[in-house]
Structures are given as structure tokens and as C-alpha cells.
# Entry
Amino acid sequence: MIDFNDKCVLITTNDWFYAPNGQQYKAVWGKVKICKSENLLGVKPHNYANWFVIVDDVVLIAGCQIHYVLLCDQKPIGNSVFIKGDLSL
# Structure
């Protein structure tokens, strides 16, 4: 099993999500932390969404919404991926 904690990854999601800049994305890049929902939210949900990924302490994605995860040390090129440093509020 690959340990993704504190590594830069590219995550694609099953559906669009809103980033802190108000725009919609289907992918996010940055350092991740994987958390159990009961530790993060204080409740233990049923079967799905029992874990989350926090990307750069800015974006929170439910595990059930993740499509692909790729180890990716270099910042992706293009504007279809949300990257924390690219926040334009």
C-alpha cells in the first residue's frame, strides 16, 4: 500500500467541486493528509465517506469522491487543476 500522507499528488474527482476561489474543478494538486471522518468531523458516518483527504489545508475531499490519485512532485501545467498558490480571489 502506498502512503500518500505529506506527499504531493494529483487527485481527480468523480464530480466538480468548488475551490476557495469560487471556481469549479475536477482535479486538485498539492500535499495531502488522509483523515478518518470521525477524527475530522467528530461523527462516524455509515458505509461511505468514512475518510477524507485534505489538500494543502485548503481543500477537503470525501474519499468516495476520489477517482484517481497520482504521485506528482511537479506542479501540473494548465488551468483545469486547482492549486493553492494559484488562488485568485
